[in-house]
Amino acid sequence: MKQIVVLSGKGGTGKTTIAAALAHLASREMSIVLADADVDAANLELVLAPEVQESQDFVGGQVAVINPQTCIACGVCAEVCRFGAVVREENGYRVDRIPCEGCAACFYQCPANAISMENSVDGRWFQSRTRFGLLFHAHLIAARENSGKLVSLVKQRARLAALEDHSDLLIVDGPPGIGCPVIAAATGADLALLITEPTISGAHDLARILALTEHFRIQALVCINKADINPRRAKEVAHFCTERGVPLAGCLPYDMVVTEAMVHGVPVSEYTDGPVTQELIRIWQQVKDHVLVRSAETLSNGYIP
Q: Cα 117 to chain center, whole Å?
C-alpha cells in the first residue's frame, strides 16, 4: 500500500479540489482509502457525499475542574496557574477551560483536594463510505487545540483500514501551512503533491512546504493551479522547481467549471472531461508513475536508499 499526501503552503490553492479529482481518477484503476487531514476545516466530504458508518469523540487532553462544594477558596490554584485559567468568583474559584492547558499544577497543589482532571472532548472523528472508497475525516471544535493529535488519529485509522482491506493507495488531503498538523499528515507518505499558485505569496509558500518535505525526505511533485492567470509568474515557479530538482506534475488552467463542479458536489474530473480534467489526468499519471511504477523499479533493482 502506497501513500500520497496533497499539501500546500497556504489555504485556498485548490488542494481539496485536486485531492477529490485524484480520488475519482485513482479509484477507476485501483482500490483506495481516503483521509481528510484538514481537521480544522475538513471539506473533502463536500464533494464526496460520504455515508457515515462510525463516529467517535476525540479526547484531546484534560482540563482542571474545581468542585465548589469542597473548595475552601484559599486561592492557591490561582497562584500556581501560569496560564491565568483560574478565575476568582464571589463564592470561590472556577477554571476557564479555554486558557487551561491541562498541566495539573492546581490539581497537585490544592490543599482541599477540590480539583479533578477531566477528559476534554475536543471534536469527533468519522469513518464514512464514499463511492470511491472509505473516507476518514474529523471535526475539531473551534478554539480547541491538539489538531496534530487528531490528524495522527485520522491517519492511523485510515492506514489501518487500508492495510486490512489490502488497498493499493491511501490518499491524504493535508492541512495548509507547515505546522504540526502538516507534519502529522505527511508522516509516512511515499509522495507529496504540492499545490501552488502563480503569485508572489504562492511561490514563497511553495518554498516553505518544499523545505519541509525535503527535511523529511519525502519525494515531491508540484502542481501549479490557475497557471494561466499569471503566465510570467508560473514560469518563475516552474524555473524554481527545475533549480530545486523537483518535477512539475502539471499546470491547471483557471476555469469556472471547477466552481460549477463544487456547487454540484462532485469532483471536477467526474463533472466534465474538458481541459482541467485532461490536465488532472496527466497529473494523476505523473503521480502514479512516481509513487507506483518507479517504486516497483527501485525494488526490482534492489536499491536501498
A: 30
**3 state SS for the chain:** CEEEEEEECCCCCCHHHHHHHHHHHHHCCCCEEEEECCCCCCCCHHHHCCEEEEEEEEEEEEEEEECCCCCCCCCHHHHHCCCCCEEEECCEEEECCCCCCCCCHHHHHCCCCCEEEEEEEEEEEEEEECCCEEEEEEEECCCCCCHHHHHHHHHHHHHHHHHHCCCCEEEEEEEECCCHHHHHHHCCCCEEEEEECCCHHHHHHHHHHHHHHHHCCCCEEEEECCHHHCHHHHHHHHHHHHHHCCCEEEECCCCCHHHHHHHCCCCHHHHCCCHHHHHHHHHHHHHHHHHHHHHHHHHHCCCCC
Whether the pLDDT of residue 298 is over 70: the answer is no
- Band of residue 143 on the pLDDT scale cut at 50, 70, 90: confident
| Higher-pLDDT residue of 142, 269 | 269
Give the pLDDT confidence score for residue 296 in this predicted structure.
55
Distance CA(227)–CA(285), nearest Å, equals: 19
Contact by Cβ (8 Å): 168, 1 = yes
Cell 491547471 found at: 252
Core vs surface per residue 106-141: b (16+ CB within 10 A) or e: bbeebeeebbebeebebbebbbbebebbbbbbbbbe
Q: Which three cell numbers stand for residue 200?
A: 508572489
Dig out the grid coordinates for 183 from the structure.
507534519
C-alpha to C-alpha distance for 150 and 148, rounded to whole angstroms: 5
pLDDT greater than 70 at residue 38? yes
